[in-house]
């Protein structure tokens, strides 16, 4: 028997970076956690949850996950958007966590049970110059990764998002009260990166899946040219090759290349991607559980994608919390058309604040068999790391105008 909701609290903490966590408690003391982190806009979701959602939850039957989703989505009148959908996603995941804990089952069992034994994952290799990048790829291979996203520096640019000259890992948002600014040059990128990726393929041979992320920065024509230029690299996917709003752009890309395309880390609902899926303009849909309305809504996105042989491959950067990674792995284990899970990895402190049952082995992840999602929040430790303003960088072209992200 699942009891009614007695409490809904929001915890904002910053163990190396900011995370927003929703904690729902039932009258009989079962606790469910959901991740509501929206990188660089964290407090907007925290307020949405605290001020507008929590009061609606108190007294509701915690077992009615879909009905609660419908209430928050349809009932608000104002639909979609990253803030709304991240808030709904956190409630949804927390309620699945409660259902699993009450029934004594990991969530993947409640989604129909495992359709695979483990979930393939990929992580990021960065190197400013080719030798550093190859070293990074080799090191990840040694750790067991079977799929690696390769990003490099660009001659003539001082900085490139996600790639440090000193080969250290990257933090998607720098702690500061204003967004740091970078210069971007698509022509330099187009001249340099196809050749570099060809070198990476030559180095690794056939046994490793390679991915590459263009971070929405190319025009349709540039994207088509780039996708054709990297055809022989045999990428597992080319990610975010154009901004996600201009979806017809992908027809041009498709017309010039069979390089697989992945888009979706900025999507927050099925309405952002249904045309891309129905017209088969993408091969992988990358919406994250936390940003796209939770497990319930991701199930619908993946079900539609399955009809069109598009596969799920959720966003998994360090700016979604381990609760989202855990939730995503339950979905991955139980969803036939799930391809791969991004796993950027976390600072060990983040692992202490969010102790989890999921594990990495041999290039694959598994959510574990703890009841519910299997990721908790250590509130005492979290309280030691209060929110600190942090923002993603802004990219400008050489003439000073802001470019697409
Ligand atoms: C990236 C992210 O993981 C990815 O594929 O695109 O680093 C992304 O830029 C950040 O999550 C934005 O918050
Ligand atoms: Mg990306």
UniProtKB/TrEMBL annotation:
One Pfam family linked to the record: MR_MLE_N
UniProt cross-references to InterPro entries, sorted A to Z: D-mannonate_dehydratase-like, DgoD-like, Enolase-like_C_sf, Enolase-like_N, Enolase_C-like, Mandel_Rmase/mucon_lact_enz_CS, Mandelate_racemase_C, Mandelate_racemase_N_dom
Residue stretches making up the Mandelate racemase/muconate lactonizing enzyme C-terminal domain: 130-260
Top-level taxon: Bacteria
SUPFAM superfamilies: Enolase C-terminal domain-like (SSF51604), Enolase N-terminal domain-like (SSF54826)
NCBIfam families in the record: ManoateDhtManD (NF043051), PRK15072.1 (NF011654)
Record protein name field: D-galactonate dehydratase family protein
Organism: Saccharopolyspora halophila
